[in-house]
Amino acid sequence: MKPVVTLGETMALLSTPPWGRVTAGAALPAGIGGAESNVAIGLARLGVESCWLSRVGDDALGDFVTREIRAEGVRVLAERDPDAPTGLMLKEMRAGKPRRVRYYRRGSAFSKMSTVDESVITSAGLVHLTGITPALGRGPAKLVEHVMELAHGASVPVSFDVNHRATLWDAEEAAPVLARLVAAADIVFAGPEEAALVLSREPGGDDFAAGEELARALAATGPRTVVVKLGALGALSLCNGEIHRGRASAVDVVDPVGAGDAFVAGYLSGVVAGASVPESVRLGNAAGAAVCAMPGDWEGFPVKEELGPVTGEGEVLR
């Protein structure tokens, strides 16, 4: 099995105390966070070879980020920038739960990334990208499109998670870029609001019926598979004209950050293993639920044995 290759920025992550206020002498636990490395870690835990391409500063935070990802069994190919810093984000807590995430990534090392080892892309089994990367600068935006072209030229499938971050760019700027990338991808992941943004329409409902309508509209633009993530309700996948629904299991949510990335990792682990679409949806839902039940962006990612056997709960509509 060839590796799944991801490309994106991972930042050092600091969390405020549970009560939210930072005071003199307060401890701010350190971790890491980045959608693409989250997916790579999730895949590695599920037994799929993965590789993360990025750029970090030649600093202590860059050491920390790369060491943590490598320790999870992911192949790390991250350039070191002697002049620009590693990105940073702050998770603000209230009553012990995340309330807001703030980014400090303008001018970061990754925002200056514009090249990649082309052989890593052309020899991959699948390439996974997100809509976060093109929001980080002209170089990363061009690089995403270049990586897609390389992958397609080598017949390597591309998955793309819309992952719109409103704090990085506004909807008016993001929509046409995301729409172009969605149309060029083979597999697309989106939430209802993200799908509506790409389609330049007002957000509608977040149930299965509304999700199916959005999936069919997105598929009409180019991708062969569209997955709409519906949060606590579950998810659906449109593949080869068939809708496959999967309901999520009830879970006490501790920290929802990273659940979407866990879903993608679970779903893609099924894809690369040749699993059925209902099973891929089930794996995605199970992985997402596991992350919601624990604090942290990726720390709660399950291993393969924890996802359980096929349950037959996926619903196929023909």
UniProtKB/TrEMBL annotation:
Residues 3-296 form the Carbohydrate kinase PfkB domain. InterPro entries: Carboh/pur_kinase_PfkB_CS (IPR002173), PfkB_Carbo_kinase (IPR050306), PfkB_dom (IPR011611), Ribo/fructo_kinase (IPR002139), Ribokinase-like (IPR029056). GO terms for molecular function: ATP binding; fructokinase activity. It comes from the Bacteria. Transmembrane segments: none annotated. It holds the Pfam family PfkB. GO terms for biological process: fructose metabolic process. Keywords: ATP-binding, Kinase, Nucleotide-binding, Transferase. Belongs to the carbohydrate kinase PfkB family. This is Sugar kinase. It comes from Amycolatopsis acidicola. The lineage of its organism: Bacteria, Bacillati, Actinomycetota, Actinomycetes, Pseudonocardiales.
